[in-house]
Each structure stands twice: as structure tokens, then as C-alpha cells.
Amino acid sequence: MARGDGSGGREKTIVIDTKEASRLFVEHFGALPQWVVRAPGRVNLIGEHTDYNDGFVMPLAIDRAVWIALRPRPDRRVVVRSIDFDDSGEFLLDQLRPSEQRWLEYIKGVAWSLAEDGLALSGWEGIVTGDVPAGAGLSSSAALEVAAARAFAAAAAIPWDAKAMAVRCQRAENRWVGMNCGIMDQMISACGRAGHAVLIDCRSLELSPAPLPDDVSVVVLDTGTRRGLVDSQYNARRADCEAACAALGVKALRDATLQLLDERRASLSETAFRRARHVISENERTVRAAEAMRSGDVDALGLMLGESHRSLRDDYEVSSPALDAIVDAATAHPACLGARMTGAGFGGCAVALVRSVEAADFARRTAARYRDQTGFDAVVHVCRATDGAAVEWTAGDSSH
Predict the structure, then answer these.
(1) Tens digit of each residue's pLDDT (9 = 90 or more) over 184-194
(2) Which of 113, 170, 351, 369 has the fewest CB atoms found within 10 Å of its own CB?
(3) Are strands 77-82 and 124-130 parallel, antiparallel or unpaired?
(4) 194 in Cβ contact with 386 (< 8 Å)
(5) Cα separation of 335 and 162, whole Å?
(6) DSSP 369
(7) Can you state the percent helix, strand and coil of the chain, rounding each to 5?
(8) Do both 242 and 204 map to the same domain?
(9) Which among 185, 222, 240, 324 is annotated as catalytic?
(10) What counts of helices (H) and strands (E) characterise the chain?
(11) Is residue 88 a part of any domain in this protein?
(12) What is the Cα–Cα distance from 319 to 181, expressed in whole angstroms?
């Protein structure tokens, strides 16, 4: 299955599917794998920097994924070859220690987190590959974590509980990798639903699918720029939100209103006030966006994407010149209903809602306009909403 949009935007054609993952496994290990698992990346339609504030997000799992082809080992060793990093690594399940192989730490952290919950793990060896671009804001790290959880579950015959596994993968990233992320990325990678975005209540973990309109396409626009110093900036934004909560007397910004924020404005720094205003208004927008999707009001949905981008740019200050430029280029096209930056920010991707009949023309013209404005080549991908993580093939499956 070739990945590419045929749009004229810069796009590397990558063939990653069950057969390709199996082929790579055979090439490296000399035999067919026992299982091939997949976990998708995601694009967040709306609800940015709200997840770690106990708020609402509305992502969709996309047709870009991390694949692991694997077979069990008789010992308690995990041996992995990463195609994308052109590197190999291994570790013992009984001797989990941090190392300098950053990509391997995501897999090791998942093993640690599953073991923390008393799950009995087994060794395996496998190939990891995928087509989720790293650093683009499409959650390549969460896809790797959830794919690893699927691999461990297959190797040890652990029943798959998608929500519980998402929480364990988040814990791995928080406490093993050291990135203080919210639950959104792992949850949508584990629990995505084909043809839908999913409204996630990040406090209760309630999931509410919202159908994507048949005549509207979700288009990811990769600026070709990558985030710098994002970890420190991300943690600084979390600290700003915590300061706002203390001043407002609430557990999380999920519990605050714009009226309360205005009433307590004098007790907040200007920075904390603007950070809180973004989160509170973004939560309200996200809930309204889900309602608009269910009622088919795509025009209102598009307007909310624009509001979200301006709030992220001006109040949360996580946009970038490249992101602003690609959003401007997207919204200049008549088929675009709305666009905004997506992901942590400071580079990476924007997301646009586009009339499907003009999606190819939108992609070509937006990429050209962006190139004229910035000198950068955009990677454009018209997305399809997919199901969450799954075992795609098991040895003996006649469809392979």
C-alpha cells in the first residue's frame, strides 16, 4: 500500500503494511514472524494543550503507523531491530535499566510499565518500522509505545484492554522516558475508530466518537520544520497552568470558567492569565466542535479550528512562523473550511478541513503558496481515520 496523496506536495512514497513488515522480518531473522502488530499515529483535530489540564481533546487515528513484526523467544530477552533508525538493541526483562538508545527506551519503558501492573511478560524479537514522521506532531512516540504494548501482549498472551494499555503507555513516557505528556496520544492510538474523530474526556477517559462528514477531508500539512527545545517549553506551559490553577483555586483548568478567570485576573501574572484563557476557551471549543460534527455543521467546525489556532498563537504562544504561514496558505484556498497548528507546536504540522472534491487541488496550491512564502517544501497528506492498535496478522493466517 503506497502512501502518498498524489497532490504535488512533497511526499515520500513509503510502502509499509503487514507484508512489508513481514518481509523485513524475514530479511533480518530468516523466518516468518509469529505476529505483525500495528499502532497508528494521530492528528488532533481540535483540543490542544488541554489533555494535561483534565480537559477535552478530539483526535483521530490516521493511516500512518508503527508496525512491529515479531516472534517469541524462549528466554526473557527482547531483541529489536529499528529500520527507521538503522539500529539494533536488546534488553532483559529482569534487568530494565535506562540506556542511550532513545528509540529503544520507549519499548523498554512500556515493558517496565506493564510489569509495574503485575503483568507477566515474555521475551520476543522483532523488527520495528513505520511511516509516522518523527517530530512532526503526529505522535510517532505514542505509536511506538502502543505498538510495543501490542507486541508484549501478543508474546505473553495478555488480554488486550485498549484503555488500560493506553494509560500504561502514558506512564512509560511520563516516568521512564521523562516526557510529561497527557493521555491523548496513547489513547487515540489504542482506541481510534475508522471514519471518526474521538472526543476524549481526559479526566474520566470517556470516549465519544464523532463521525467525519463524507464530503470533508482531513489534510495534514507538514511544514518541514521540526520543534526545538520543545520539552522545556512544554514543561514551562504546564507550570504556567499549575500556577493559574493555584490562583483560581481549582484542581485543574478543566474546572475553571472564563468568568472565574476574569474575576481573578488580578491574582495571576499576565502570562498565566493568557495560558489559562487558551485552555479554558479551547475546552469549550472542543466540546462544541464535537456537537458540530454530529450535526454536520462543517462551517461552524471550520471556524472553531481558526479560533483554536489564534488562541494557540497569541495566548499559548506555541505556534511558529512556519506554522502560521502554512495555516495562512491553507485558509487562502476556497475549499478550506478551517485550519490550525496541531501537536505540541514550535514546528511540525497543521491540520485543515477541506471539501473532498477539491482536496487534491488544495494540497497542490497550498504547498506552492507555502513554498513561495517560506522557501520550505511542505509534505501534504490527505488522511483517512483508522481503527486503533491491532494484531494485523498471526502465523497461519491465510490472508497473508
Answers:
(1) 999 999 999 99
(2) 369
(3) parallel
(4) yes
(5) 36
(6) H
(7) 45, 25, 30
(8) no
(9) 185
(10) 11, 14
(11) yes
(12) 18
Q: Read off the pTM.
A: 0.90
Annotation marks residue 240 as catalytic: no
Task: Name the E strands within the chain.
Answer: 2-3, 14-15, 35-46, 56-72, 77-82, 87-92, 124-130, 196-201, 207-211, 216-222, 336-342, 349-355, 379-383, 390-394
The verdict on residue 199 lying in a domain is yes
Q: Has residue 48 been placed in a domain?
A: yes
Amino acid letter at 30? G
Q: Residue 169: which residues within 8 A CB-CB, separation 6 or more?
A: 110, 113, 142, 145, 146, 148, 149, 186, 189, 190
- Name the 3-class secondary structure at 219: strand
Q: Which domain holds residue 84?
A: 2-212+386-394
Task: Please name the residue that has the C-alpha cell 507546536.
Answer: 345
Cα(330)–Cα(219) distance, rounded to whole angstroms? Answer: 10
Compute CA distances 19 → 23, 32, 65, 246, whole Å: 6, 10, 14, 53
Q: What is the pLDDT of residue 279?
A: 98
235-262: per-residue pLDDT in tens?
899 999 999 999 999 999 999 999 999 9
What is the grid cell recorded at 383? Answer: 488522511
Cell of 285: 471549543
In the DSSP assignment, the letter for residue 181 is: -
Q: Which three cell numbers stand for residue 139?
A: 505522535
